[in-house]
Fold Putative membrane protein DUF2207.
Amino acid sequence: MPPTAVVNGIPQIIRRRTRTIAGAAAAALLLAGLAAPPALAEETRRVSAFDAEFEVAKGGAVHVRETLTYTFGSDSGQVNRAIPHTGSIDGGGELDFGLTGVEVEDPDGVAPVDVVEEGDQTSVLIGDEGGDDQLTGTRTFVISYTYDRLVTHGTSDADPRLFIDVVGSGWSIPVEDVRAEFAAPGEVLETACYAGPEGSTAACSTESADGTGATFEHARVDPGEAMSVEFALEPGSVEVPEPVHVESDGTDSSDDFDGFEDEGWFGFHFWFNWFPYIWIAMVVLVIVMRIRGGRGGGRRGGSSGIGFGGSSGGGFGGGGGGGGGGGGGGAGGGGGGGGGG
């Protein structure tokens, strides 16, 4: 019905009311039908199976081997697996996890394969974006890499702890049928597995630990969500690497200090030159406070002081990799993970 038939007169609207309603309903159904295919197309591309093997070495390195089964359906395009170099654990300070040895062990016959360093992450690119040889159907790829500094301290310096994002929150497609297997040189004492939106403490589908191994499974991780695993290892079974903190400009803090260099007002030379005067001032202050306390009896009650400490965080663990932890464990709170599409 032309739009002018609606606005030109009331009788015409009354006579064709039933047909107008029917036409509107048909249009609504047509629009719904047209809108459905893109949503289905987006859902077609997914990781239909994600198997990850984690081997914790005595020296503290974590060797990772991922087997990813992609289902493309009618969708196609390049596979991108982004593996982060840095991150925080339990919301602590930014750490460099020491990512090394990124390798595509099995590209399932697909070419080209590129491993590209991109700032704070390494991207594995499989296939040719926009090329003639498009990826369709189902393909399985095997990727391996190592994190040299992912193990952190737990409740004490002798307690190794691992808190890792098996599936990070950076994925743009669903990741289904996730299975993560861990092997350690010592006994696995406690475990926890979280899945869902970042910060969620909802448990994974299944988790089990037996001796020096542990297995975790979850049915599906949607884009923007994460699956994170945390466990404590037998004291002394793994050497905990010294954490390397990342400054706000992206540099490692370990590279900023070279002997006793001049660091301005609060550097070495400041304390070396002014320490005697500061010491004398503190002694005089103590004497004055003692004299005043003797006269007036002083203030009763609690004491105050200056100390050094950090917050502990994360489930049953400790200080979040030297970064100051806090807030308890949850999905997306571990190291590693990253994303892909």
Remarks:
- The radius of gyration is 29 Å.
- The CA atoms of residues 113 and 126 lie 5 Å apart.
